[in-house]
Amino acid sequence: MGLLLLIALAPLGHSQGNAADNGTTHGRKRIRAVRTEMPVTVDGNLDEPAWQAAEVTLGFIQRDPREGEPSTERTEFRILYTPDTLYVGVICYDSNAAGILATERRRDGGTSSTNIGAGQDSLENDDTVALVLDTFHDHRNAFLFRTNPLGTQYDALITDEGRTVNKEWDEQWNVASQITSAGWIAEFAIPFKILRVYEENGAGWGLDVERVIRRKNEFSYWNNYRRGFQLENVSQAGHMEGLEGAVAGLRLRVKPYLLGGFRRFSNESRTVTQSASDAGIEVMKYRITPSLTADLTWRTDFAQTEVDDQQVNLDRFPLFFPEKREFFQEGAGVYEFGAVRGEGTTPLITMFHSRQIGLSPSRQPVPIVAGGRITGRVQGLTVGLLNVQTEALPSEGIPASNYGVMRVKRDLLARSSVGGFVMTRESGGSADFNRIYGADANFVFKRYFRIEGLVGKSGSPNAKGNNWVTTGTIGWDSDFLRISNGWIVVDPEFRNDLGFVPRKNMRQFIPQLAIRPRPASDLIRRINISYRGDYIMNQRNELETRVNHYILGFEFESGDQLNWTPHTRLERLVAPFRLRPGVVIPPGTYSWWYNNMRYNGNPARKLSGSFVYQRHYGFFGGDLRTLQLGPRLKMTEQLSFETQYELNRGTFQAGKFSQEVGGPLSDQEGRFTDHVVNTRINYNFNNQWLTSTTVQYNNNDSLLGFNFRLNYIFRPGDDFFLVYNEGRRVGGILDGQKDRSLQLKLTYSFEY
After folding, report:
1. How crowded is the C-beta side of 261, counted as CA atoms within 13 Å?
2. Is the pLDDT of residue 5 over 50?
3. 3-state percent helix, strand, coil for the chain, nearest multiple of 5
4. Are residues 630 and 665 in contact, defined by beta-carbon separation less than 8 angstroms?
5. How crowded is residue 502: how many other Cβ atoms within 10 Å of its Cβ?
């Protein structure tokens, strides 16, 4: 049926719009930066004499909804520079200035959560302007700066054309915006000292500019407008020329912190109060060369880090929690290798996951004594060196440990690379250790054809073999067609203490096919008809898991999305596993199918969000229904509400579960019901005074959590935080136990 629908719709597509050809856009447009000695005040006005001398650049082209056609609203920009700062002024004319959307004041959109406010972490509620600066002009890596009509800042590091986009990179730059009767204006001031640049006259950069008109769901670009590419694909950017006498400046920045507060928690029959005060070095940054930077940290503290979303596990493998700590996020793209993504954003495997450092398996902080990192480019190589020393955490049996990562990568051809890596963990007070080393390669041909591969080997005491891992993907991924096959092979004795490897002794194959026509319709922008398979065998080639994913999805011109995704699944269990207290799945072969309906509303609306309903017919021999509600309400530009509620209701017939592993089968019907709530209330007085309040509930863990965070950004890069946390056990044997903390943290940078 899906194939017939595709055949009927494909001839109606306009995927190339009025574009003259299907070539790439690399370097088609150029702009010259103009040096000025006149002062520039960053206030959202471009009426100063310096701006009048700058070259005006026009000609923005749509990617969506009409590829290759001029933007429906005029956009122009200009570039100035002084020896220490790059200035970019953008005028976004709008025939309906009253329709300009501007609602977000939180830097970076406020949250890096995987659930709460998903889709809001790039200011996508609003009209925006974004810049990408490929300062080394290597066509792979870049800095991203984005703002909205309120002057809210978003910045990120782009690695390998968007394979990693690290929004936790926060630097000291400035932007001002204002709405006028003719549209809106954005004025950027980006110091050269926060970029990695060559200090040579006439150095060329890669450059592109994006404008989003949210009420029209329109995306237009100065240069890279082709579908099948994104803004992060900097190989398709235009060129900026004319920089002479630019000075990187900063060589040393020291950012100490002061922390004051207390923690009070219930411990068996008594209440314990502990000091939570400390002092240390948040980061000490030293620029070895314009392209190579060293970062050091001492007595690292993460008091201001956002709390993890509550999750519940519906499978027998561990859950994945993303990294949110600033020190590990900055420059993280250098250490991204060997990651294979699942159906969503969660990786099936990743060779290095920094949460293994300084956090226990139960997500409790492990004290960090000190750490150091060197990242950048030297002699044509991209390098990353990381070393962190942690203290012991006796309560969870974790010894003091030293963690080290070395990453080297060399660019090849236009968009390809090869690299190698070594990772180590040394446990103090014992002979235990873990070492992983290997190599990877990434080749891109014909714009959309990609071949990736990785091979690695682990070493540990008494290792005798069967300790290899390999991953790879070969495929074509354009706007219309995706066809690929991926694989993961993990030997039974492979050990990686620094990565996320949830499953061993397996061979997994991941075929994918997606056809995405664009019908000539005022209602539907794109249709997605796709298939993905996950076939997992053990090393004896015995099938253990098979999941077939089917998708029929619609992207509407309004910005809404609707997906119907039925799945079929087979699981062969050789050992029982405990799904919930009192529900233990016995060994056997289980086969079922489940129906999944998902709706995502246009985030530009005041009330938007998502809705997901799943029904598993025969889930491990029982029945499972899942409901996820994610409403998002923007009351004003200061106040917003974001909620994610998940309900899981499982039922198992008599004889399909047991009270304990190996225990007698029950004659009763087994049931469980999960209620998981993650709610965030944001109130922002302005772009400097920001607050967020998080309320969480998870009945599976009998946990009620509360977090309040006040963030005052008193100058770019330096903050004052007031953070209150409370966790309370509700129900179960720990009912009434509490864990509270109140902390005040101040950072202040010194630059030399």
Report:
1. 21
2. no
3. 5, 55, 40
4. no
5. 17
Please give the average per-residue pLDDT across 684-701, as a whole number. 93
Of 152, 130, 141, nearest to 210 by C-alpha is 130
Residue 212 burial (10 A CB sphere; 0-12, 13-18, 19+)? buried
Q: Which residue has the higher pLDDT, 332 or 40?
A: 40
**Distance (Å, whole) CA 434 – CA 457:** 11
**505 vs 655, which has greater pLDDT?**
505
What the chain holds in terms of domains, given with CATH numbers, is 2-243 (2.60.40.1190), 311-515 (no CATH), 517-532+543-676 (no CATH)
Which pLDDT does position 656 carry in this prediction? 52
654: left (phi over 0), alpha (psi -120 to 50) or beta: beta
- DSSP letters spanning 340-393: EE-SSSSEEEBS--GGGSSB-TTS-B--EEEEEEEEEEETTEEEEEEEEEE--B
Pairing of strands 278-289, 292-298: antiparallel
The residue type found at 647 is: L
In a 13 Å sphere around the CA of 655, the CA atoms on its Cβ side amount to 1
Residue 405: both structure tokens together: 């990562």
Which residue is listed with tokens 């690379």?
417
CB-CB contact of 740 with 248 (8 Å): no
Please tell me the predicted confidence (pLDDT) of residue 596. Answer: 94
Tell me the pLDDT tens digit for each residue of 507-545. 999 999 999 999 999 999 999 999 999 999 999 999 999
Residue 309: band (very low, low, confident or very high) from pLDDT cuts 50, 70, 90: confident
